[in-house]
């Protein structure tokens, strides 16, 4: 059983974002998830700006958001929690995000094989019909590794409480 399919109310931020220091440092915010899908927000913050003249969020922050969301979608698709790792991440930047605007990312895992997962995502800054970027990712799923993942500790503590 995968506790990420239906996390307890109020635990999504802990399970998906705060357990990974980089995701927390980016300021990612958990919005919602379902089996195989997640929605995260990347709120605008001056520390994420790539061009001080325009106030546009740096592409690296958008990339980090996509990697986190795509990986989260894969974790939500699995029957039981497993370690995963990004094999490939492709992002098409369609336009700059508007300065001062939160970027919302919807990600879904659309194909899961024994060892590989395929996911895709979109991001916008207020209008889902006016995308900032799209992404596709490929992830390895570790099936025989017994080492625990940082998420396991948070999930297990969250389910017990």
Strand order of the biggest β-sheet? 1-2-6-7-8-5
CATH architecture: Roll
- Major sheet details: 6 strands, antiparallel
Parts with pLDDT < 50 across at least 5 consecutive residues = 153-161
Mean pLDDT: 91
Order of helices and strands: HHEEEEHEEEEH
Q: What's the CATH H-level superfamily name?
A: Hotdog Thioesterase
CATH topology: Thiol Ester Dehydrase, Chain A
Radius of gyration, in Å, reads 15 Å
Oligomer: single chain
Fraction of residues in H or I helices? 25-40%
Number of helices: 4
What is the CATH class designation?
Alpha Beta
Count the E strands.
Answer: 8
Number of separate structural domains: 1
Question: What structural category characterises the helix and strand content?
Answer: alpha+beta
- State the distance separating the first and last CA atoms: 17 Å
Description of the molecule:
With 161 residues, this protein is an alpha+beta fold. The protein has a single domain (11-141), classed as Thiol Ester Dehydrase, Chain A (Roll). Helix content is 27%, strand content 35%. The chain has four helices and eight strands; from the N terminus they run ααββββαββββα. It has helices spanning 12-18, 21-26, 59-77, 150-160; strands spanning 29-34, 37-42, 49-51, 56-57, 84-93, 103-112, 116-124, 131-141. The strands form two sheets. The protein has a six-stranded antiparallel sheet. It has a two-stranded antiparallel ribbon with strand order 3-4. The protein is globular, with a radius of gyration of 15 Å. The two termini are 17 Å apart. The relative contact order is 0.20. Mean pLDDT is 91; it is low at 153-161.
